[in-house]
From TrEMBL, chain A:
Entry keyword Signal: yes
A Gene Ontology cellular-component term: lysosome
Species of provenance: Pristionchus pacificus
Known role: As a component of the GATOR1 complex functions as an inhibitor of the amino acid-sensing branch of the TORC1 pathway.
Keyword annotations from UniProtKB, A to Z: Lysosome, Signal
Region (Disordered) residue spans: 173-192, 202-248
GO annotation, biological process: cellular response to amino acid starvation; negative regulation of TORC1 signaling; positive regulation of autophagy
PANTHER family reported in the protein's UniProt record: CGTHBA PROTEIN -14 GENE PROTEIN (PTHR13153), GATOR COMPLEX PROTEIN NPRL3 (PTHR13153:SF5)
Compositional bias annotation for Basic and acidic residues: 225-234
Listed InterPro entries: HTH_NPRL3 (IPR056603), Npr3 (IPR005365)
GATOR1 complex protein NPRL3 C-terminal HTH domain location: 589-639
Family to which the UniProt record says this protein belongs: Belongs to the NPR3 family.
Protein name (Swiss-Prot/TrEMBL): GATOR complex protein NPRL3
Compositionally biased region (Acidic residues): 177-192, 209-224
From TrEMBL, chain B:
GO BP annotations, alphabetical order: cellular response to amino acid starvation; negative regulation of TORC1 signaling; positive regulation of autophagy
Pfam family, one: NPR2
Protein family (similarity comment): Belongs to the NPR2 family.
InterPro entries: NPR2-like
Protein name: Nitrogen permease regulator 2-like protein
Signal sequence residues: none
GO cellular component: GATOR1 complex; vacuolar membrane
């Protein structure tokens, strides 16, 4: 797997905010990023479709285009009846038709759907009004995730029913004095705002009048007359607008639904679609909550409407198209909600981790796993992969933090404590012991960190660890944007060459070196592990029949009954191995004392169920609470019926492939 | 925005990682046909599964319903007919919510529209027909397929829906089939539903002039074929029945007809090209095509200078009795008296470790004394992904200050084989040269 510069598959293309007011048509309030097509491009008349779908693709056809069967169909063929050579069409053409009866023809739209004056054409071939009409679902489907695919564009989002703003008068009975005071304050504020708004308008008028007057002085009377008329008109429209605004405020109060949607490329993976749906859901719920409390959404709508109206007026006055005024950028300047959505989109693209505050109050945090991992220059994984990883997590595993900085300003105290004690040499048990947090909670925190792409799981650094270069091909070795500049490419290359074919950590760190050098190498090792340039190999054991080249010798004496009974009684060994075990034990008895042999045999019998290639020696040490040496001695004794295997464990297999 | 080139996720695969392509389903990999001898005949997975040239189609969700929706002059969008009739395919509420998508405004006509909601996916292709005889002057209709949500292979139905709706346009133009013959439309829908669900294809003679041909085409697991190198060995992975061999070969294009008989699991692409005297580039493209249609799979050329390593995918082999038997049948040395034993073969696989070339390994372990043919042994392992071929990735020291073309290319991303192909030199010679220059580090992956 080679990682691409920017994975184009799981990268969202745009975010859209749509809403519907009661009794009005749907609107696309905001879209980011938006490419303005000015003048609006006419819809290319859809070429008639070639119906002759190749049911048995010939091997000669281009592979790339076969991958995209639909577009092939759209582009191929020019005549509706000509393509494909299916029988009926030619038959139909040849047939004698009664000429008077008109025949149906396929309707191709000539113009884009234009419900409002503010409609703009998007680069996705669908106008903003059309987007609004498809993304604003009816009541039955509200509060549900939404997924659509139109030709080659995918939409993933969430449609939310708006809860009406609970005005405090409604809850008068429940109000306490303090809140009343607050309300008064609020009212004052509102009044203040009103006054400010009025002042601003007056100022504007004044400025206009002044300008007009200036011009008037220089112009002839005729023009003056005209100007005067226009001014009158202006005043009238001004008044009308004010009236309208008053009305609109009432109308806006009845917003029925809104939706946040992401446009995704057609080949987006299912788990990515799900995560964008979850993100849209989170945002929607938070926005609705603020709407309930502060009338947030409706206030934002007022702001957006103001800008829209301004631009519309400007566009009308200058006879330019609405799109040429770059409406969404100007909306973004004014509207807090649109700024938030922009930030969400930019964060997803850049880091994959979203952290925004809706109306400066509700914290919405989200992690799009695949993008966050890409940001950390690690292979992308789905949530399901991460869950599988978690299921393989054991208390003897350790962690490497991907980033030093913890972005959340007020993390859970135990998370902060754990992060302080998080070093590559420490296992989860060690961390638990050092911090006093119960192991279960540590595991939960580790899971949380994994889901937020903050850590990777390793086996803690120890001298006996065997490493080899990982199978994950990464280019370049030193990523200038992300990797620390502490290590040069040569140092990394040198270290990687050291682990070719494989070597233990103690060999790499080399205890005979001076301490400083040892520390440097230790840090380099952490760096290699962090970027998954190396992977650890673990030793696994399989119980096997003896090799035909090294058969078990024939013991001189039979195994004493007491030991034989031990073997029979344990029931942990498959019966086909009982004879071999007995023979090896009998041979061992010729070399060492009965006590030692009995001890080894008993340990072997406990160990036997783990010799199935699923448990590495570290796992055995943890399970049996034994030292490496004890286990190795036993395995050595019974080595004729044990085959060992050096391979990466499930954790690195899941992380790297 | 330029539309994305590939509908499926393209995987960039380097030469070294060809043997690591993750199969979607282990059981889905068809068995190999190494050196002209097929190992296992394809397992019949479902009724829809087919053999060679007809392409296997696994995991296809069954249709839950077909609906025919049209814009009624009095009631607006309505579901006119549906099969199966006794079961409501989608609730009225859901239909009303999405009626703007099933029978959309004219902007979205003639487009594939898929709605995924709650438990089902509705795939449709709305079409509007203009004719003065229609009550509204226009007839908007959409015959939608409804499939369950849980499968992702439903994109196979997309071209089918499109084609079906275009047939309907034709038939409407021919004899007002949709507007004047409701019973026939119902009958047609029933036939399509039954046959597509049963066989994955249908041929229905609807009118005198129109015969409907619909067939599900597989999505090819959504993987782009890997970049093929001249030194890769194609292996047939589909069994061709002897009696059908000629017929199938005849159906193929000229290039495939020539190449397929030469694929024996030993010759690499370049050797095949030389054998059939066709430009190697053309052969490469043909092989790539065959990979795309899952007819062949690539295995690196077996070289005694290569290093093979056992991977964790060997673990299932410990228990899988059928695979063990198959392996023992396959790896046996021809003409040898000794039959290979499972414990020996398994130990041999385990003993393949990094840092040891195949030549050294053969010297150390002498697999022939166990009755094991090491070439077959390695190929079986490579095919089932028990083994992985390690490639050497040279990395130039002080690469930034280097000016040479080769030194700059040695950034740890290109294996020695890739570089050798690019510079038309034998990989071993190149490795020797690089080692001698003492300006490179080597990483084994």
């Amino acid at each position: 797997l080679r990682m691409e510069e920017d994975d184009p598959i799981n990268r969202p293309l745009a975010v859209i905010l749509v809403a519907q007011r009661e009794g009005q048509s749907e609107e696309t309030l905001y879209m980011y990023p938006f490419t303005y097509c000015d003048p609006p491009t006419p819809i290319p008349s859809t070429p008639p479709i070639n119906r002759g779908f190749p049911s048995v693709p010939s091997t000669g056809s281009s592979i790339g285009s076969m991958g995209n069967a639909l577009s092939v169909l759209r582009l191929g063929g020019t005549s509706l009846f000509g393509g494909g050579g299916t029988q009926p069409s030619s038959g139909f053409l040849n047939r004698k038709e009664p000429k008077e009866q008109p025949r149906p023809t396929i309707h191709y739209p000539r113009e884009m759907y234009h419900a409002q004056a503010t409609t703009m054409q998007t680069t996705f071939g669908i106008s903003t009004s059309m987007l609004a009409s498809i993304l604003c679902v009816k009541k039955a489907c509200l509060d549900h995730v939404l997924e659509l695919k139109i030709d080659n564009i995918r939409f993933a989002g969430y449609a939310k029913q708006v809860t009406a703003h609970k005005r405090k008068e409604d809850n008068e009975m429940l109000m306490i004095m303090d809140e009343e005071e607050e309300e008064e304050d609020r009212d004052d504020d509102d009044e203040g705002l009103e006054i400010m708004r009025r002042n601003r308008k007056e100022e504007k008028n004044e400025v206009k009048n002044e300008d007009d007057e200036d011009i008037d002085d220089e112009t002839t009377e005729e023009i003056e007359d005209g100007k005067m008329k226009m001014k009158d008109d202006d005043d009238k429209s001004e008044i009308e607008e004010e009236e309208k605004e008053g009305k609109r405020k009432e109308e806006i109060a009845k917003i029925s639904m809104f939706g946040i949607n992401f446009i995704l490329p057609p080949n987006t993976e299912q788990h990515v679609i799900c995560s964008f749906q979850r993100l849209a859901k989170k945002l929607s719920i938070a926005i609705n909550e603020m709407q309930k409390q502060n009338n947030y959404l409706e206030d934002e709508l007022v702001v957006i409407d103001q800008v829209t109206n301004e631009i519309e007026a400007e566009a009308n006055a200058s006879k330019m198209s609405y799109a040429s005024r770059r409406p969404y950028e100007r909306i973004r300047e004014k509207s807090l909600l649109c700024q938030t959505l922009t930030k969400v989109f930019d964060d997803v693209i850049e880091t994959g981790v979203v952290q925004v505050f809706i109306d400066r109050l509700i914290d919405v945090s989200f992690c799009v796993e695949s993008r966050a991992l890409r940001f950390a220059s690690l292979p992308p994984r789905s949530r399901a992969d991460l869950d599988r990883l978690v299921s393989h997590l054991r208390p003897y595993h350790g962690l490497i933090l991907l980033k030093d900085v913890w972005p959340n300003p007020d993390p859970n105290p135990s998370v902060a404590l754990l992060l302080k004690h998080c070093t590559p040499e420490k296992s989860i048990i060690d961390i638990s012991a050092a911090t006093g947090i119960p192991i279960l909670q540590v595991l939960l925190i580790v899971r949380h960190l994994l889901l937020w792409a903050r850590v990777i799981i390793i086996y803690p650094l120890s001298n006996n660890n065997v490493y080899t270069s990982s199978t994950f091909t990464k280019a370049p070795l030193v990523d200038p944007t992300f990797m620390s500049t502490e290590w040069s490419e040569d140092q990394i290359a040198n270290a990687l060459a050291f682990f070719n074919p494989y070597a233990t950590l103690s060999k790499f760190v080399d205890p005979t070196e001076v301490l400083v050098e040892q520390q440097v190498r230790g840090r380099l090792m952490t760096h290699l592990l962090r970027h998954q340039l190396v992977m650890q190999l673990h030793r696994y054991y399989y119980m096997m029949e003896p090799s035909s080249r090294y058969p078990i010798g024939v013991p001189k004496k039979q195994l004493p009954d007491s030991l034989m009974r031990m073997i029979k009684a344990s029931k942990l060994i498959h019966f086909q191995f009982e004879g071999f075990v007995a023979d090896i034990t009998a041979l061992e008895l010729e070399k060492s004392s009965y006590g030692k042999v009995a001890k080894k045999l008993s340990l072997f019998l406990i160990l036997a169920p783990l010799l199935n290639g699923q448990h590495h020696i570290e796992d055995m040490m943890y399970r049996l609470n034994a030292t490496r040496k004890t286990i190795l001695t036993v395995i050595d004794v019974y080595s004729l019926i044990i085959a060992d295997f050096l391979r990466p464990d499930e954790i690195s297999a899941l992380s790297i492939y | 925005m330029t539309p994305p080139k590939h509908r499926f996720r393209p995987k960039s695969i380097t030469l070294s990682s060809v043997d690591e392509i993750e199969p979607i389903d282990e059981n889905e990999i068809p068995p190999p046909c190494v050196i002209g001898r097929p190992i296992r005949s394809p397992v019949e997975k479902s009724e829809i599964s087919r053999i060679f040239a007809d392409f296997l189609t696994f995991n296809v969700p069954k249709l839950t319903a077909i609906i025919y929706a049209e814009f009624d002059k009095d009631y607006g969008p309505t579901v006119r007919y549906q099969v199966p009739e006794n079961k409501q395919a989608i609730s009225k509420e859901t239909f009303n919510s999405f009626s703007a998508l099933i029978l959309p405004k004219e902007d979205l006509l003639n487009r594939m529209i898929k709605v995924i909601f709650k438990e089902c996916k509705i795939i449709g292709h709305p079409i509007g027909l203009d004719c003065p005889t229609y009550p509204r002057g226009r007839h908007i209709f959409n015959m939608c397929f409804i499939v369950p949500k849980d499968s992702s292979a439903d994109c196979m139905y997309e071209p089918l829906v499109q084609k079906l709706n275009e047939y309907l346009v034709d038939m409407e133009q021919e004899c007002f089939f949709l507007t004047k013959r409701p019973e026939d439309v119902k009958g047609l829908m029933n036939q399509i539903f039954d046959k597509v669900n049963e066989k994955g294809e249908c041929v229905i003679k609807v009118t005198d002039l129109t015969t409907m041909h619909l067939r599900l085409c597989p999505a090819y697991r959504g993987v782009e074929p890997p970049v093929v190198s001249l030194y890769m060995v194609p292996m047939l992975i589909r069994k061709i029945r002897t009696e059908e061999y000629d017929r199938i070969i005849e159906k193929m294009d000229v290039l495939s007809q020539k190449i397929i008989p030469e694929i024996d699991g030993v010759r690499c692409v370049r050797e095949i090209a030389m054998k059939v005297s066709i430009d190697a580039d053309l052969v490469l493209r043909c092989v790539r095509n065959l990979i795309f249609y899952e007819c062949v799979q690539l295995v690196p050329l077996l070289l005694y200078a290569n290093t093979y390593v056992a991977t964790e995918k060997l673990h299932p082999f410990y228990h899988d009795q059928t695979l063990i038997q198959e392996c023992l049948d396959f790896v046996g040395l021809q003409g040898s008296e000794v039959n290979p034993k499972y414990s020996d073969v398994f130990r041999l696989y385990l003993s393949l470790r990094c840092g040891m070339t195949l030549r050294k390994w053969v010297e150390a372990y002498d697999p022939r004394s166990y009755g094991v043919d090491e070439r077959r042994f390695i190929q079986f392992g490579m095919f089932h992904r028990f083994l992985r071929k390690l490639s050497v990735y040279p990395l130039a020291k002080n690469r930034i200050s280097c000016t040479g073309k080769l030194s700059r290319a040695c950034d740890g991303t290109q294996s020695i084989e890739d570089l050798a192909v690019a510079h038309s030199i034998q990989p071993e010679i190149l490795l020797e040269l690089l080692t001698e220059s003492n300006r490179f580090e080597f990483i084994c992956k």
